[in-house]
Design brief:
Arc Repressor Mutant, subunit A, 3 domains, transcription, Heat-inducible transcription repressor HrcA, Enolase-like, domain 1, three-stranded antiparallel sheet, WHTH_transcript_rep_HrcA_IDD, 13 helices, WH-like_DNA-bd_sf, 10 strands
């Protein structure tokens, strides 16, 4: 939305009103606008302009106050045409550079990015985990533990090593596990993890009557080893408590529905999936996200990559009155630094 839809005077007053409302969360009256906007006009003129902006859908008057607050359309005009984005403070840039260290694994980088987004923006930060097609199985090792337990060592992509314990129906010797690992590596190394698991399950189903006990055991070990990795969390979120700490009394009541949406995941994941093909930062204000539960919240997102392909999306969720001039560059820079770390 371009600023030429309203007059210069109206744009100054709208910008002043939005910034004041973001700052204190309260409706803004004409007297406050007259003091802060610095325009050589009377209070009556300001009231007339505000009334016109309300009639056109940019502002709304809450029943409990003579002042006005921005609507989603008012915020959209502000973000698109009136916003003055601020560069990140050097402290924030240093924190991002330090925590998004390319020596960390992909999972560690995702966790760090989520926490950084929350701490720097003072909102909820989230990062989707890298897409499964970006997780390549390089090598697997099985080591016997006590009882029917096996230590699985997974090498994913070029350098990420993950350890987990699986439970088997019977104990295995070290030699049996070594042979099973050799078979799995020969057949499935180099494939995306989700594809490898699908192939393993297909072989187990299609050839169950024909395969010998050794091959069956090897496939079952491989299936259990990959199951936890393939069914991992779809995104990592941090800073939900910050939404409560920054909320007004009215906003706290609406947060329960938002937190329910976080747990349900479906709507949020669908929104993030739509953002994965975007070029740079996207801002969804209120119901622009396409879901009623986001009606009083904004979502600022950006995709991240490994320099070759898009791996996922990161972003910040907060009330529509969030400080967009700070949040937008935080999301943008974090996405770029996470991409650089994963590319290395």
């Amino acid at each position: 939305m371009t600023i030429d839809v309203i007059s210069d005077r109206a744009s100054v007053l709208l910008k002043t009103l939005v910034e004041r409302h973001i700052r204190d969360g309260q409706p803004v009256g004409s007297r406050t606008l007259m003091e802060e906007a610095g325009l050589p006009v009377s209070a009556a003129t300001i009231r007339n302009v505000m009334s016109d902006l309300e009639d056109r859908g940019f502002l709304i008057s809450p029943h409990t106050s003579a002042g006005r607050i921005p609507t989603a359309m008012g915020y959209r005009l502000f973000v698109d045409s009136l916003l003055q984005v601020q560069p990140l403070h050097s402290e924030a840039v240093s924190a991002l550079r330090h925590e998004l260290n390319p020596d960390k694994s992909a999972n560690e980088l995702v966790q760090s990015a989520s926490s950084l987004l929350a701490n720097i923006s003072a909102q909820a930060g989230l990062v989707t985990v890298p897409r499964q097609e970006a997780h390549q199985l390089r090598q697997v090792e099985f080591l016997p533990l006590s009882g029917n337990r096996v230590l699985v060592i997974l090498v994913v992509n070029e350098r990420e090593v993950q350890n987990r314990i699986i439970y088997t129906e019977r104990p295995f010797t070290e030699e049996q596990l070594r042979e099973a690992a050799a078979m799995v590596n020969q057949r499935f190394a180099g494939r995306p993890l989700n594809i490898a698991q699908e192939d393993i399950l297909r072989e187990m189903h299609d050839a169950r009557a024909q395969i010998d006990a050794y091959l069956r055991d090897s496939l079952e070990l491989a299936s259990k080893a990959l199951d936890q990795e393939v069914n991992e969390e779809e995104y990592v979120m941090a800073g939900e408590s910050k939404l409560i700490g920054n909320a007004t009394a009215e906003e706290v009541l609406k947060l329960r529905e938002l937190f329910d949406a976080f747990e349900q995941k479906k709507d949020l994941l669908h929104l993030l999936d739509r953002c994965s093909s975007a070029d740079g930062v996207q801002v969804f204000i209120g119901e622009e996200a396409g879901y009623e539960v986001f009606g009083d919240y904004s979502v600022v997102t950006a995709p991240y990559s490994d320099g070759v392909q898009t791996l996922g999306v990161l972003g910040v969720i907060g009330p529509t009155r969030m400080a967009y001039e700070r949040v937008i560059p935080i999301v943008d820079v974090t996405a770029k630094m996470l991409s650089q770390a994963l590319a290395k």
